[in-house]
């Protein structure tokens, strides 16, 4: 219920206080928590998170426009972090050994704003494990690359899948005993050639290793 009652409040006046924000939204229901996000020096960052005791209060807020301290503000239903990552974070398999985070970021920038790109590497050797993750600002263009054949990065065909939520990756971790999916069982330091086609268990195992 707490997540259902949580809201993101954007566009705040720099002078708006936690107390003023709480008082304003108390008109719509009991406010359990209210925090304006601030820089280390204490200056407001212009947005806040607010949690109502009842989810119905969120619906009441969303039915009208809001002005606080002389400024139009923008309340939205907060998206849980795990759900947000599930919608914007993608698993990239079949990477070339020469692919770097920078080249992966450059490649996927053609599909939208990339906020993070990571190639997973072996801790001992520093060599690529053959997979990574890319996170976009939003998922608007995901149909252009998720599950599509013919995507080639650094002269190697890659495969992109929606990243699984952490809860499912944890389940996969327990199933495979923390083994790396792209390394031989006999010698965890010897990379094996990853296949472009991944089954579900391999995908979850790879994501578990990257958690």
Automatic annotation (TrEMBL):
- Which keywords label this protein? Repeat, RNA-binding
Q: Which PROSITE patterns match?
A: RRM (PS50102)
Give the species this sequence originates from. Paxillus rubicundulus Ve08.2h10
| An example molecular function term from Gene Ontology annotations | mRNA binding
CDD domains per the record? RRM1_Hrp1p
Q: Which GO terms describe its biological process?
A: regulation of translation
Q: What is this protein called?
A: RRM domain-containing protein
- The segment(s) forming the RRM domain are 5-79, 88-165
Q: Where is this region: Disordered?
A: 162-196
* Keyword RNA-binding attributed: yes
């Amino acid at each position: 219920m707490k997540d259902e009652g949580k809201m993101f409040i954007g566009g705040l006046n720099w002078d708006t206080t936690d107390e003023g924000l709480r008082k304003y939204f108390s008109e719509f229901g009991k406010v359990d928590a209210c925090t304006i996000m601030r820089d280390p020096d204490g200056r407001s960052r212009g947005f806040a998170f607010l949690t109502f005791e009842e989810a119905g209060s969120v619906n009441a807020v969303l039915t009208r426009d809001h002005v606080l301290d002389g400024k139009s503000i923008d309340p939205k239903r907060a998206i849980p972090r795990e759900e947000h990552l599930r919608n914007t974070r993608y698993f990239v398999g079949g990477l070339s050994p020469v692919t770097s985070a920078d080249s992966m970021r450059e490649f996927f920038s053609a599909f939208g704003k990339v906020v993070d790109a990571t190639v997973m590497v072996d801790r001992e050797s520093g060599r690529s494990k053959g997979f990574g993750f890319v996170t976009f600002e939003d998922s608007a263009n995901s149909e252009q690359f998720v599950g599509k054949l013919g995507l080639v990065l650094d002269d190697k065909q890659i495969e992109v899948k929606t990243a699984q939520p952490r809860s499912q990756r944890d389940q996969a971790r327990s199933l495979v005993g923390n083994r790396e999916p792209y390394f031989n069982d006999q010698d965890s330091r010897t990379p094996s050639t990853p296949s472009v086609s991944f089954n579900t268990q391999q995908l979850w195992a790879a994501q578990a290793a990257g958690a």
